[in-house]
């Protein structure tokens, strides 16, 4: 490791170890951010090592994997499928510190960037801290979101949350800096545990990867949702809203998979929407971008977004957005500007907002499209990379 007083240290490439409990091929916001961050850092010449669970228990080891066009060194630790969840894999917690010691013996790292304080990030943070290696931690998790998968009885929920956040606090206090995607998420973390100075840094996207359709539209009928089909996403609220608009002949496309796929199919049948709803499942990056381009409005009823990469992708695709007025979504969707907010769970209000957007005259609709495009500019991935590089090097941030 180069001594901190070396004048060449400011510009030299760094060796960065990224600890990720979820990574490709997983499809979720935390995994997508980790992929974009790691690939972006590699493109800038840094030596990036991603540490994550193996896809199958037997298929572990060190691999070169191409992510976003960049070859990355990926350390796949022996992973186990968590049966209550449809895709989640984990490294045995009682072995995580052992693996962390091995990795830090093998790789001379300048900094560890933890993407999760649950297993791998928790272990690497503790071992790195013991060895004097700086740690930057990013929080993508609200402990409340994992309650459905713990199999705990509800009377133990409060105890679980107290223990989980106490452990998160201990882990974060071993870090040089703690970040979250938005100021609102930072305030949530500071108000939940005894920690201050949390830095909001957007997950970032590359706007040029998306293709807005700004041509005048005679008919607007395609509603889009992209994300995991889990309880906190509340896709059923959007289904109920669409059922209240039979005269608009809407088509609702749902991109993503998850444990709620079967129950959402049942809701679709109960509401008589089989001919108006298409479950596309998990799709390729190209198919995803095409779905954004052909849509007329993006709807997200989630109540647990610390930022929402999907919403930023929709904005980069020139879509008006209708979002639940919860957690970080108001940070992206400004009511009456690039779309509308609605009371979480209120299908009647969502239906009203859908009608407003899809029946707006062309000038008003185009104005909302441009507002989305203008609003996503500040979330450019290059700004995100610049900020994390400063944190890795211990440099002051621009305020």
Outline the structure in words.
It is a single chain. The protein is α/β, with parallel strands linked by helices. It has two domains: 7-204 and 380-393, 3-Layer(aba) Sandwich (Rossmann fold); 208-377, Rossmann fold (3-Layer(aba) Sandwich). It is 37% helix and 19% strand. The protein contains 13 helices and 16 strands. Strands 3-4-2-1-7-8-9-10 form an eight-stranded mixed sheet, sandwiched between helices. The chain has a six-stranded parallel sheet with strand order 13-12-11-14-15-16, sandwiched between helices. Strands 5-6 form a two-stranded antiparallel sheet. Helix 1 crosses helix 13 (381-393) and helix 2 (93-106) crosses helix 3 (120-130).
């Amino acid at each position: 490791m180069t001594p901190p007083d070396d004048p060449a240290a400011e510009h030299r490439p760094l060796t960065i170890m990224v600890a990720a409990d979820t990574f490709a091929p997983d499809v979720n916001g935390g995994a997508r951010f980790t992929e974009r961050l790691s690939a972006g850092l590699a493109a800038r010449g840094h030596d990036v090592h991603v540490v994550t669970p193996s896809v199958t228990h037997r298929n572990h080891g060190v691999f070169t994997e191409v992510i976003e066009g960049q070859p990355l060194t990926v350390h796949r630790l022996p992973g186990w499928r968590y049966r209550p969840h449809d895709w989640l894999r984990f490294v045995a917690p009682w072995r995580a510190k052992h693996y962390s010691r091995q990795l830090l013996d093998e790789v001379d790292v300048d900094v560890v960037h933890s993407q999760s304080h649950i297993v791998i990030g928790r272990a690497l943070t503790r071992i790195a801290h013991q060895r004097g290696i700086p740690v930057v931690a990013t929080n993508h998790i609200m402990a409340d979101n994992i309650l459905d998968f713990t199999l705990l009885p509800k009377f133990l929920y409060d105890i679980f949350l107290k223990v989980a956040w106490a452990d998160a606090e201990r882990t974060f206090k071993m870090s040089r800096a703690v970040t979250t995607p938005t100021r609102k998420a930072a305030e949530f973390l500071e108000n939940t545990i005894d920690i201050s100075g949390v830095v909001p840094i957007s997950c970032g996207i590359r706007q040029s990867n998306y293709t807005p359709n700004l041509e005048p539209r005679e008919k607007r009928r395609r509603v889009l949702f992209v994300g995991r089909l889990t309880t906190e996403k509340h896709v059923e609220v959007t289904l109920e809203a669409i059922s209240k608009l039979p005269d608009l002949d809407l088509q609702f496309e749902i991109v993503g998979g998850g444990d709620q796929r079967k129950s959402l199919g049942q809701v679709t049948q109960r509401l008589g929407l089989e001919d108006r709803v298409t479950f596309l499942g998990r799709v390729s990056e190209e198919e995803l971008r095409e779905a954004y381009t052909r849509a007329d409005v993006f709807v997200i009823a989630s109540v647990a977004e610390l930022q929402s990469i999907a919403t930023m992708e929709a904005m980069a695709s020139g879509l008006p957005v209708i979002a639940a007025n919860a957690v970080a979504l108001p940070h992206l969707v400004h009511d009456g500007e690039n779309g509308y907010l609605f009371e979480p769970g209120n299908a009647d209000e969502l239906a009203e907002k859908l009608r407003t957007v899809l029946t707006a005259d062309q000038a008003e609709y185009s104005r909302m499209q441009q507002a989305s495009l203008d609003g996503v500019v500040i979330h450019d991935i290059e700004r995100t990379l610049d900020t994390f590089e400063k944190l890795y090097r211990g440099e002051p941030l621009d305020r």
